[in-house]
């Protein structure tokens, strides 16, 4: 099985995960609630990591929920087939919701709500590297002919959920709103504890030191890799074949250096600077 892409308003998506009807429903009819908490992430940038952090914070540091319920049920993806309808019937509050959608395709009801968004961004060359390995093991992505082919598709936005550059531009337009928190994968790697404290503050959750320690410990790469509720090993091989590449693959920054040629890296940089021109946000990798 392999995924050919479908399109919604110019954005590629996999028919194994969503549909034009579902995306239309999400955009026009899904009702965002004021106490919703969104985990918004471009694919391969730390979505599952933030799910773990959020689940643990909401549980006051108790890992029971994270160890007994799959991550896609704890913080489900809003735009997955049948999910928006299901989310409308959920009675627990707050709802914790993941999404890969770009800003302009988010529910219309979001703009007038008070819902909070945690937006996680990762160095785009590492995103592409992670994406490359992911596409070799999952039905949700088209198998690229080569790394070079995927690089070209990434730069033109012909990948699931569209252009990384548009995603960043769209979501960071909220950066001055108090209901928006920008987190980077690199911050999480460098200072997980400090990031957890920041997220707790943003959510208005007061956790004592022991609870924060537990969030940090249970959201480490090693613990998540061994947790079948977080490592996607409960997914059937037809959807994700972890013999080809594990979902919890390396969990580091800078692996792109093992994949890009000098020419590819320079070409990527040229497109990056052209597309990010005028953006009022600086990332740690902009200094490299
Ligand atoms: P790699 O393929 O580079 O290892 P997403 O959840 O958005 O699909 O992102 C998956 C990427 O996040 C993978 O990157 C995965 O290893 C990494 N990841 C998930 N949990 C992590 C953690 N606790 N620490 C570091 N990286 C993590």
Summarize this structure as a short list of keywords or feature phrases.
288 residues; alpha/beta; Rossmann fold; 4-stranded parallel beta sheet; 13 helices; globular
Notes on the protein architecture:
The protein is α/β, with parallel strands linked by helices and 288 residues long. It has a single domain, classed as 3-Layer(aba) Sandwich (Rossmann fold). 41% of the residues lie in helices and 9% in strands. The protein contains 13 helices and 6 strands. It has helices at residues 20-28, 47-58, 64-68, 71-74, 83-87, 124-137, 147-156, 164-172, 185-190, 192-203, 209-218, 221-226, 262-276, and strands spanning 6-8, 11-13, 37-41, 96-99, 116-121, 180-184. A 4-stranded parallel sheet has the order 4-3-5-6, with helices on both faces. A hairpin with a 2-residue loop joins strand 1 (6-8) and strand 2 (11-13). Helix 2 (47-58) runs antiparallel to helix 11 (209-218). It is globular and about 50 Å long. The chain starts with 5 loop residues before the first strand and ends in a 12-residue tail after the last helix. Bound molecules: adenosine-3'-5'-diphosphate. Adenosine-3'-5'-diphosphate (A3P) binds next to helix 2, helix 6 and helix 12. Adenosine-3'-5'-diphosphate (A3P) binds at residues 41, 43-49, 130, 133, 219-221, 224, 248-251, 255.
The total of helices stands at: 13
Strands side by side in the biggest sheet: 4-3-5-6
Q: The CATH topology is what?
A: Rossmann fold
Q: Oligomeric status of the shown chains?
A: single chain
Overall number of strands: 6
Task: Bin the helical content.
Answer: 40-55%
Q: Which CATH first-tier class would you pick?
A: Alpha Beta
Low-confidence stretches: none
Give the N-terminus to C-terminus distance in angstroms. 40 Å
* Order of SSEs: EEHEHHHHEEHHHEHHHHH
Overall geometry comes to globular
Biggest β-sheet, characterized? 4 strands, parallel
Task: Supply Rg.
Answer: 18 Å
What is the typical, i.e. mean, pLDDT?
97
């Amino acid at each position: 099985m392999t995924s050919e892409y479908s399109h919604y308003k110019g954005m590629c998506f996999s028919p194994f995960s969503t549909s034009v009807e579902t995306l239309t429903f999400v955009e026009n009819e899904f009702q965002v609630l004021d106490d919703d908490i969104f985990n918004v992430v471009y694919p391969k940038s730390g979505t599952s990591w933030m799910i773990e952090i959020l689940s643990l914070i909401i549980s006051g540091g108790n890992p029971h929920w994270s160890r007994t319920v799959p991550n896609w049920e704890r913080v489900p993806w809003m735009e997955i087939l049948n999910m928006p309808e299901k989310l409308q019937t959920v009675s627990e509050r707050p709802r914790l919701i993941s999404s890969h959608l770009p800003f302009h395709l988010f529910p219309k009801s979001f703009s007038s709500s008070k819902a909070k968004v945690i937006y996680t961004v990762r160095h785009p060359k590492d995103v592409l590297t992670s994406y490359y390995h992911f596409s070799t093991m999952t039905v949700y992505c088209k198998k690229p002919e080569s790394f070079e082919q995927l690089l070209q598709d990434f730069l033109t936005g012909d990948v699931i959920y569209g252009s990384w550059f548009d995603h960043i531009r769209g979501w960071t337009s909220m950066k001055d709103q108090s209901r928006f928190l920008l987190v980077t994968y690199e911050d999480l790697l460098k200072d997980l504890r400090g990031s957890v404290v920041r997220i707790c503050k943003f959510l208005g959750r007061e956790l004592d030191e022991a609870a924060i320690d537990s969030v940090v410990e249970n959201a480490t790469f090693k613990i998540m890799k061994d947790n079948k509720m977080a490592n996607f090993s409960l997914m059937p091989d037809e959807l994700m074949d972890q013999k080809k590449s594990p979902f919890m693959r390396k969990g580091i920054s800078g692996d792109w250096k093992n994949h890009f040629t000098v020419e590819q890296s320079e070409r990527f940089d040229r497109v990056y600077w052209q597309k990010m021109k005028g953006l009022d946000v600086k990332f740690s990798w902009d200094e490299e």
